User: What shape does this take?
Amino acid sequence: MNALSGQSRTPLVLVGFAITMVACSSSPSGSDAFETRLISATRNLIEDYDLPGMTVAIAGPDGVMSVAAGDADPDNGRAMTAETTMLAASIGKTFVAATVLQMSDEGKLKLDDPISDWLGDKDWFDRLPNASGITIRHLLQHRAGLQDHVHMQAFSDLWLGGREDLAPEDLIALVLDTEPLFPAGEAWSYSDTGYLMLGLIVEKVAGRSYEDEIRERFLNPLGLTSTGPSNQKRLPQLASGYASGEPGLGLAVKTTDDSGAMVWNPAIEWTGGGLYSTSYDLALWGRYFLSGRLLTESTDQQALGGVAASDGDANSLYGLGISIRLDSPWGPVYGHRGWIPGYVSSLQYYPEYDTAIAFQTNTDIGIIDAPEPIIFRIEETIATVVLSDIAKDMAKDDNRQRPRGG
Assistant: This one.
């Protein structure tokens, strides 16, 4: 494992923006001009897309830098800072994948094990669509042929009925006795349900809770001090989110009450996402995991073995818990996005620059329901600011290490 240098954080307030830098000794992250451009870009994105607030972080060879702008709770005058947390939503799947992949490296399971080896003793297992044909790899890559319970009417009915205390197996039960979308392994369809089953497998292999497992494997060793399970309504330094309203769920527009507690229980997400975090921690995590630093080379290559994740788009692939884009102006991009009502997050790693970029915003209004790819536009805007400077540095230093080529 190649650690980033330095773990201490020194906050600095500059014209209303919270800046956090760690061991940023050279440009671009050590450049005042670069900082000004990134702050300006963040401010412009807030204005362009009418966002309450936003945080952006970069983790690269020179360290980690985070900026914040706007409001964490505009109704109560709380400013967004680099330490403000938000729900990371499906970016949490990268932690599930990393755990399973490390367990594979350790010989505790095999990626092509049938899930019946681990879940076959469940009294509901034989009622699972494609039960006998699903492998761990299929679940990681959304190729199990399972519906996504989050988009089922039965889930909406439970939520509207006030059932916020649902256990993972209660949610898996929603897909039991349904027809598979396709035979296991023969197509691709995103399924949070499959990741709940991965969580059950992790707990069976580990003999302890999923939360304890990732805390010991990743959160503590990597210094992800602002990341933790979103398993209760009151979460540390959480921004108030503003939701457009998922059809049928009947959620309030604002995710928190005046005391800062969430008005609905995020624990329902579990290993479909299930974490609060900061952009700082997400970028740091992305550079560790998506660079392959946490895995053996063989397993890392398997994780990047993508299948088509979008009809008619050969450049959009999905690996083992990793979204892959091949047609970026900056070379291939590995990462994941996250959305949960009120919060949108993005984590992208650019291997040719050994740099991860993360952003979070505390609204989904005008983003998730937009007719154009707003998340993609925000990612491209930030990447252009960040990577153009790094490219100039790399042109001056041909010896800078690029862990995946380039």
